[in-house]
Design goal:
It is a single chain. The protein is built from one helix and 20 strands. It is mostly beta strands. Among the domains are: about 130 residues, no CATH class; about 30 residues, no CATH class; about 55 residues, no CATH class.
Length: about 400
């Protein structure tokens, strides 16, 4: 049973102060003398005011008796013409659950006088409006369950422009510090122009799996990669640092030196295939070579081979084996003995083969040979030829046939 409020009825007959006339509206019949209406469900309602076309919202407080609009005598009452629509406004209790007094009116003109708890029931309206001043919460909510479709002007005191949206349509208005928390996303994108770093990083700890297009302003093509897939694009100076590898490989074509070395200090353990353009077979090995060695002085006709004991101005000996040597200071040759003369031979010597007559020696020189019998002397004769003052004389030292 709803509250009886703004109950309207149209009179079927003129209602005057004739006390014998009965007024009947809805289930309200026989207006009682005490001015209280009793309806079918036992609810009692007291008439508060009435509205008619010519007397709108007429308060019954001006009447001596609330029922006087229908049952009074004299000029206090009111006569309604047939067809007049009368609005009756009541107050009362509702099955002892409503405190007697002023009811809530459908037109909203009556305010609550105390807090109202609807219990387990809903209160529905097109619009809920709160006129409490700032400082008092307009709603007190016990449930933390999300309210579907609720579109609030502020969240926790912040306007829409103060917060960011999950769809990324609202930009930040100031720097955002997440403190010790992480910010995660599939992609982080910076649209700041070149000249301003897109990231400011305090930690120097390695970021695993970070694959950047640039490293210190240079692309991957500008860097030498550990896998050797990127070649250098310009000369590289390591300064005072070393470059180490198991193997150094040069693929430059012949005609360009693969190494340029400023230092003349010997490189220990460096084993090269060539020395100054020559293979190893072009050089004699001072420690010997299996199979022996051949030493040439030159490659052109008439080239010489010159041996010196030392590069120093004071010369020494050039040894042939352990006991024979050439005295470079005195220009003497000793075979098996230190030379006291230009040619000094220790022990016997053999001249071979037998020879024909040689030509004349130069002035001041002499020579000897063992004849083979083809010229002036018989085979086996030992002959001496001496040139003194361009006068050459020959004599036989030994006649082989005479012995």
């Amino acid at each position: 049973m709803d509250l009886i409020s703004n109950l309207q009825t149209t009179l079927s007959a003129a209602y005057t102060h004739d006390t014998s006339t009965k007024f009947e509206v809805d289930s309200v019949t026989n207006w009682p003398a005490d001015g209280v209406v009793r309806v079918d469900d036992g609810t009692e309602w007291a008439l508060q005011r009435y509205d008619v076309v010519d007397v709108p919202n007429k308060e019954l407080e001006t009447l001596t008796d609330p029922k006087a609009i229908f049952e009074s005598s004299g000029a206090v009452g009111h006569v309604f013409a047939i067809g007049t629509t009368v609005t009756l406004v009541f107050t009362g209790d509702y099955l002892d659950e409503i405190v007697p007094g002023t009811p809530i009116l459908a037109d909203g003109s009556q305010a609550l006088t105390a807090n109202w708890d609807a219990g387990a029931y809903e209160i529905r309206a097109l619009t809920f409006e709160s006129d409490v001043t700032t400082g008092t919460a307009p709603f007190t909510v016990a449930s933390t369950t999300v309210v579907a479709n609720l579109n609030a002007d502020q969240v926790d005191g912040h306007d829409f422009d103060d917060v960011i949206l999950a769809n990324g349509t609202v930009p930040f208005t100031a720097a955002f510090d997440a403190g010790p928390w992480q910010i995660r996303a599939e992609t982080f994108r910076s649209d700041v122009v070149t000249g301003t770093p897109p990231f400011t990083v305090a930690s120097t700890t390695l970021v695993s799996n970070l694959n950047a297009a640039y490293l210190n302003g240079a692309t991957a093509a500008s860097w030498v990669l550990a896998d050797g897939t990127n070649p250098l694009t310009a000369s590289w100076d390591a300064g005072a640092f070393q470059i180490r590898a198991l193997t150094f490989y040069s693929d430059v074509a012949t005609g360009t030196a693969p190494l340029t070395v400023a230092s003349t200090t010997m490189v220990d353990n460096l084993n090269t295939d060539m020395l100054d353009g020559y293979e190893a077979t072009a050089f004699p090995l001072l420690l010997g070579l299996s199979g022996g060695q051949v030493l040439y002085g030159g490659t052109d006709a008439g080239d010489d081979l010159t041996l010196h004991s030392t590069i120093h101005a004071t010369k020494g000996y050039i040894y042939f084996g352990a006991n024979s040597f050439y005295d470079q200071v005195n220009d003497r040759l000793g075979l098996g003995v230190t030379p006291d003369t230009n040619l000094h031979i220790l022990g016997a010597f053999t001249q071979c083969p037998l020879s024909s007559d040689p030509g004349d020696p130069d002035a001041g020189n002499w020579g000897f040979w063992c004849s083979d019998g083809t010229d002036s002397y018989s085979a086996g004769d030992v002959v001496v030829k001496v040139n003194v003052g361009a006068v050459v004389k020959t004599f036989r030292l030994f006649q082989y046939a005479a012995h």
